[in-house]
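User: Sequence recovery, please. Input:
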């Protein structure tokens, strides 16, 4: 069971003990990300995330932070998403105060040195190049561009080359002050820790975290789609990476559990329908996956795969056929129960790790009005019926919601020899 308490400065503290583990994860998650940016500072959320590890008043240099954590064998990192940014340290239970000290230090005392900003530009440019040179990673961004167009929801989290090269120290300071504050932050302590220790230590290290109410999201999703859309990005090679999906629902929608099951049935395991069809029966792809991400104001379901250029049309037709099949026929009780059991098993495995537990509860606290316990999540999964799956499939698998992103030897969708349609 988790416990949640709010400090006097507005910081929400979530404690999630994990029986049997010897580790503790400290995760500070802030309700901000690239959807809060504008055209001139796109990429600043991610760039700023890097800068928190570049020196504080108490630990002046990058190595002061890294060596202190490395000396106790801690794992640590950060991430930037469209609507949240997180900073975490996972270490032994004996080192929990060190983890709290470091996370609080970087959030309250980072220097954002101009010299470090200049040095980090090159690092982030190489990170951007890595994403663009890896179609399996790049296809996610391209699909969201197809969905949301030229809005913050459709922009890359890493930002544009121009912004990475030109953001100034004052831009970072202004953005930090507008987005980071106790009322906008969830601190989750998960693993080998008691509620009493958690609350005591959270107050000790985070009570002085500044108050700040963040501005609203700048991003507005492009939801005016009237027909199927295709977006291509040219890359020479024999393989085409595709992402073929549809618009769905935001987090908190009553249909999210049926959608979760639907995505797993289609491509969430090695025995799923599309993995079986594309890889095992037709030998068209090495990787096949279907996912259904949820945002606060939107969501989608998509299937990704890497296929031979000559077999692209066939692969697209197979995916659309499976979408259409589940829309018309639904799922059997046997397949539905198998999928529920799969989700339960994977959920329980994830929750054995303190960092996964911290991520679960922090995201719940950020994105939902009330935290959903994993037991409640599984109960909601178990309530989904075969008619629920069919109803959701009939709602989402329509031509007006179809989107296809392609990375391959295509300069425009005119180079394709097929139309995108479920009929």
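Assistant: Recovered sequence (423 residues):
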């Amino acid at each position: 069971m988790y416990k949640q308490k709010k400090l006097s400065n507005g910081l929400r503290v979530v404690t999630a003990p994990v029986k049997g583990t010897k580790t503790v994860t400290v995760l500070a998650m802030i309700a901000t990300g690239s959807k809060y940016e504008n055209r001139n500072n796109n990429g600043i959320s991610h760039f700023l995330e890097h800068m928190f590890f570049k020196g504080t008043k108490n630990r002046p240099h990058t190595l002061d932070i890294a060596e202190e954590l490395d000396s106790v064998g801690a794992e640590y990192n950060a991430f930037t998403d469209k609507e949240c940014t997180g900073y975490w340290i996972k270490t032994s239970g004996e080192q929990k105060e060190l983890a709290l000290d470091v996370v609080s230090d970087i959030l309250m005392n980072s220097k954002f040195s101009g010299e470090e900003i200049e040095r980090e530009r090159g690092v982030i440019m190489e990170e951007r190049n890595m994403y663009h040179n890896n179609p399996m990673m790049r296809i996610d961004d391209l699909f969201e561009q197809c969905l949301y167009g030229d809005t913050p929801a459709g922009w890359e989290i890493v930002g544009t080359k121009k912004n990475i090269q030109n953001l100034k120290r004052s831009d970072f300071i202004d953005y930090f002050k507008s987005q980071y504050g106790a009322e906008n932050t969830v601190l989750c302590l998960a693993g080998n820790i008691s509620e009493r220790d958690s609350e005591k230590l959270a107050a000790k290290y985070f009570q002085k975290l500044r108050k700040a109410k963040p501005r609203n999201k700048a991003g507005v999703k492009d939801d005016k789609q009237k027909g199927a859309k295709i977006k291509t990005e040219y890359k020479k090679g024999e393989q085409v990476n595709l992402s073929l999906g549809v618009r769905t629902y935001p987090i908190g929608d009553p249909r999210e559990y049926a959608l979760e099951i639907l995505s797993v049935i289609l491509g969430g395991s090695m025995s799923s329908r599309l993995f079986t069809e594309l890889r095992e029966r037709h030998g068209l792809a090495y990787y096949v996956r279907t996912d259904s991400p949820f945002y606060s104001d939107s969501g989608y379901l998509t299937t990704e795969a890497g296929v031979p250029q000559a077999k692209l049309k066939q692969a697209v037709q197979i995916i659309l056929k499976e979408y259409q099949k589940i829309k018309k026929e639904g799922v059997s009780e046997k397949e539905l129960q198998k999928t529920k059991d799969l989700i339960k098993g994977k959920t329980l495995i994830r929750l054995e790790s303190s960092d996964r537990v911290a991520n679960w509860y922090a995201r719940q606290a950020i994105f939902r009005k009330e935290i959903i316990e994993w037991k409640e999540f599984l109960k909601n999964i178990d309530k989904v019926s075969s008619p629920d799956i069919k109803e959701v499939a009939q709602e989402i698998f329509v031509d007006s919601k179809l989107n296809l992103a392609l990375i391959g030897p295509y300069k425009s969708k005119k180079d394709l020899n097929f139309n995108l349609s479920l009929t």
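The longest helix spans residues 114-133.
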